[in-house]
Amino acid sequence: MNKTAPFAWLVLPEAQRVAFLQQVRVWVTDEQFERIAAMTEAVPKLVEMLDQDQLTIEQLRKLAFGAPTEKTATVCPPEKPAQKPPELPAPKPRRRGHGRCGVKAYTGARQVRVSHRTLRTGESCPACREGKLSPSRPAKAVHLQGQPPIIATVFEMEVLRCQRCGKTFTAPTPPEAGTQKFDSSVGIMVALLRYGSGLPFYRLAQWQMNLGVPLPASVQWEQANALAGVIEPVVNELITLAAQAPTLFNDDTTMRVGALRKQIEAEEKPKRTGIFTSGIVVETPDHPIALFFTGRQHAGENLDDLLRQRAADLAPPLQMCDGLARNEPKEFQTLLACCLAHGRRGFVEVASHFPDQCRFVLDCLRVVYHTDARAQEERLSPEDRLARHRSESQPVLEKLKAWMAAQLDNHLVEPNSGLGQAIGYMQRRWTQLTRFLHESGAPLDNNICERALKMVVLHRKNSLAYKTARGAKVGDLFMSLIQTCRLNLINPFEYLSALTANSEAVRANPAKFLPWNYTATISSWPPTPSPVNSS
Q: Which residue range(s) make up the domain with 26?
């Protein structure tokens, strides 16, 4: 081993890396082990990129600290005239949705009705002594309290013992103690924290222990796994409904599953060594749906599985993804549209080396996005939006297409340079990138699916891995339902509570319990949940 090259010295073959981690495992805590395991995976990737000369300083900076923004004004800042003194920027208007929340935002708060202490409806006004008092808009005050995510109550029943015969008499257990140790809300809260917010089981276990309410990681898994059996029929119904949608967005990201990794290592010549979580977001006529699938299949193969449930008489759906071939289905036909944001990013990454050329491209694409934003603000129909893009965006894009052709034809840009590769990417996929100029309702980019996959990335960063294929399946079920609730502005805790309270009816007819069929009013909340696990 060449210890004079420290990065190369840290690169171990997979078998040696696994053996090293097994030796380290007994000497460190769970959190320290996860950090070490993550570093042993990250360093080889970094070394490979450096060795192949694929990593610039700018890319390394973004890889380590993240890109703050890709706005045109930041990527290609305009040159300031030297003769003019600098002017103070005008203060930006405060965006709505920032700062303190109003009373209406607390939709999940417990509502307490407070009557006036001395006055009643119909009584005489104490001020004028002439009018009668009638109900008006109530005044509201919000009070927030902190508590552990999972709370516990210990019921201590009095026991009386006869001093003569020794017989004991125990007070009956109160109804509020329930018949099971764990209420169904425990599994719901654990699932929301783990799969909705990326909080690992062991970290929640430490948190609960510090707050005096122990909840071991193994118990958390038992509760979440039991609840997964309740929600699975609803997710299967969402898959069937999503297969009929006219527009689909899909992409995937890497994932770690311990059991699948062992299976790959045991194969003599594995056809594929990667493990992925595919995200599929669909736009139905009424409600968006988000689905996640973890395994060895790519996003296009998972899309094939979904489209097998599509009605034969329906036209091929419109599919939005990036330019990777693995995102395209092989068995079913789709009308492919490629993400314009991915094409734009190629110019963002080389803007520091080709500022003038990249500014021209970014300015052209800014017109397209500005046109689409105004169409959304005006709530134009898909047909009117198509007409707007044809009148405003198409001339700009035709100008951009001619400019890119001239750059390569006139040898103004080296084809293998960063700018030349960005132009080549756009040219090869021009029809798919400009699908919104020809198809009604075609989106510009795949951002809705990219945002959905952030949930998966957050889980991967915090929890690092699934242990078994069943664990990955449970994660997919909860992430699909939680993200679908978020897209439809539905409280996932209330919705999951409703499913557990009606588990038999959900199993019998899951179509009646889709998220948008669930309506909860403050007066009927909370429902009485039925336990899903007894321990």
A: 6-57
